[in-house]
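New to this. Please check both lines:
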Amino acid sequence: MDTVTKTKDEVATHSHVVRPVEMEWQKTRFSGCEVKPLLFDKETGLVTALMRFAPGAVLPDHEHVRIEQTYVLEGKLVDKEGPAAGLEVNAGEFVWREPGSRHVAWTPQGGLMLAMFQIPNKFYERDGRVTDLSGKDWDELWAHALTE
């Protein structure tokens, strides 16, 4: 079974089994960053995903709009820039970030994480645009979810 994508029109009253080992890694627009989305709710923006980073991969300037949670399964996640610059989260450790927290993250030796977002991150582009992970305008896709 692939990613479970819920819509408001569906009423789910049972368990949904997702088998990540059977899923393909999906490349993102960020070099060395791949994802296996496990749960994605298009209405609310709720996301749970496995994220795999190559050694040295950087997740550029982004904001966690609501609480973000990450459990590091392998490797290390480091705050490269932002208020917590230098903060390291190692394999077997868990970090959660407050709504509105903003930083640049990187994985010096690479890593594998289980990440949970209440709504997708805002990425701050060099040209001033604010996008989501896909590179599309954040407000157009997700502003509606802030009112729910």
Q: What stands out?
A: The chain has a mean pLDDT of 90. The first helix runs from residue 138 to 142.
